[in-house]
Amino acid sequence: MKPLILILFVLLVKPSMAQNVMIINNAFARPGDTVSATIDISNTDRFVSFQFDLPLPPNVSYLGYSLRLGNRSVNHVAIGNMVGANLLRVFSYSPNNAAFTGETGTVVSFSLVIGPVRGEFPLTLENGIIGDSLSTNILTGTENGILSVFPLGLNDPGDKPDDQVGLIVFPNPVVDYAEVSFTVSDFSEVTLILYNQDGKKLIAADAGNFGKGRHSLELADDMMKQIKQGKIYYLEMSAKSKTEIFRNAVIKIIRIEK
Fold first, then answer.
1. Whole-angstrom distance, CA of residue 180 vs CA of residue 219
2. At residue 249, does pLDDT exceed 80?
3. Going from the N-terminus, what domains does the chain have, and what CATH number goes with each?
């Protein structure tokens, strides 16, 4: 009986080990921009279809006919429509039940038009489905993103200089050296986070602890190595004090040839 019990145990626990996760990546823009939003799926099991709803933030709209499947598709079809005033619904399927290739990466992208807003807005996936060849929803989880419309953390005219938390990178465009300058309003632990143009985090670095005031430091070598010539990147400064955690600023970086 012991071998039989062992086999039943393996069969029962195996499904719980599968990880089929739908991910919407962070996106960065300025007011008036058109920004690309990307959806990734990290999957253990093969899948042939997916679907999700995405509530759009205020003053953000879906650009019609901008839906594009990623290179994991095999003769798949994707459709995106607005449901009501601010809900984007996207679904994709295979007419011949073909599976998407690979185990990770982008499955679809689309464009969002940014209106006259600034700030950070949640990108929250709802009603997610990852469908297998038997039309079973094998989704095990979702990872949500943030739409950052910058400048962020910059105070309006008239604010006290000590309260400003602007982030500056010099020189910008970057060649082979960059200096980061920022201000904190209280003793804070500062972290620098680098994202690529699609909003994927490349590297995070603890910059150290800084007292109230303005500070400058050289961008670390391991972060500089991530910044490739001719590409666009976004650097975020996150500061944690005794009283709060807040994202201070995001700035666009581009690297040019020496």
1. 6
2. no
3. 18-149 (2.60.40.680), 161-254 (2.60.40.10)
